């Protein structure tokens, strides 16, 4: 109990003091996770919409693969990226290993299947009803597809939120390909692991508090944006 109380005190002090090292680690955590989320969204949302709205050979196999990769172990994702960007890998010449870029790649590998899989389900749930309504009203196929995507926007936001929750708390993959190098690739999650291994339990808990606060603020922001999509032009919330 004393460790928890001490950790809470240290966490508050670190936040209020704007410790330079903690600020740098926090900023890097945001840069890596948000960059990975943006890339995952740019890749995953179109792929998910394609899987939901199109029929083509191999679609079912690709969908099953996507759903399987949604549970991809972070350490395995880190190993794959390590082998690809390592000195002996196909991208070894770019010297990406132990850099923030490699950490982003590892998180993208984890994020894309989540965004793609959940987007597929969200769009498929709206597809038939919205499409039939749009066609009945005289819409073209393109307009009908656009309407489906618009009505699926809540599910897509949910997919991005779920992916962010996993990415910002990820530790195994980023430690493997980033190396947890101070001032270069150390992020909040890897800092927690380091402090725990050093026996600094209260400091680890303090950093964990910062991570939780950061995740909370991001999620609140996303939920506010999500709520706005339920609000009509007249400002009345649509239930």
Helix and strand layout, with pairings?
Layout: H1 2-17, H2 20-53, H3 59-69, H4 74-85, H5 100-136, H6 141-151, H7 153-168, H8 172-178, H9 188-197, H10 201-228
Molecular structure report:
This protein is globular. With 239 residues, it is mainly α. Mean pLDDT is 84; it is low at 232-239. It has a domain at 28-185: MetI-like (MetI-like fold), CATH 1.10.3720. The protein is 76% helix and 0% strand. The termini are far apart.
Shape, per Cα inertia axes: globular
The CATH homology group name of the domain at 28-185: MetI-like
Helix content: over 70%
Number of helices: 10
Pick out its properties:
single chain; 239 residues; mainly alpha; MetI-like fold; 10 helices; disordered C terminus
Brief description of this entry?
This protein is an all-alpha fold. It is 76% helix and 0% strand.
């Amino acid at each position: 109990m004393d460790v928890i109380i001490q950790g809470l005190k240290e966490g508050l002090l670190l936040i209020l003091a704007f410790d330079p090292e903690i600020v740098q680690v926090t900023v890097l955590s945001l840069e890596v996770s948000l960059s990975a989320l943006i890339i995952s969204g740019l890749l995953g949302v179109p792929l998910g919409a394609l899987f939901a709205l199109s029929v083509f050979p191999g679609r079912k196999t690709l969908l099953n693969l996507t759903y399987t990769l949604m549970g991809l172990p972070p350490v395995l994702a880190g190993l794959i990226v390590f082998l690809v960007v390592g000195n002996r890998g196909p991208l070894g010449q770019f010297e990406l290993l132990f850099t923030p870029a490699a950490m982003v790649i590892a998180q993208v590998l984890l994020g894309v299947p989540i965004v793609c899989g959940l987007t597929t389900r969200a769009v498929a749930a709206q597809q038939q009803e919205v499409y039939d309504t749009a066609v009945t009203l005289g819409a073209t196929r393109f307009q009908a597809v656009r309407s489906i995507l618009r009505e699926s926007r809540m599910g897509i936001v949910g997919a991005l939120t779920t992916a962010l929750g996993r990415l910002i708390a990820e530790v195994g993959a980023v430690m493997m390909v980033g190396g947890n190098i101070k001032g270069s690739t150390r992020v909040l999650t890897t800092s927690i692991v380091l402090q725990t291994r050093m026996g600094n339990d209260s400091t680890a808990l303090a950093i964990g508090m910062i991570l939780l606060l950061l995740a909370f603020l991001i999620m609140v922001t996303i939920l506010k944006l999500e709520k706005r999509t339920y609000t009509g032009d007249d400002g009345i919330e649509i239930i």
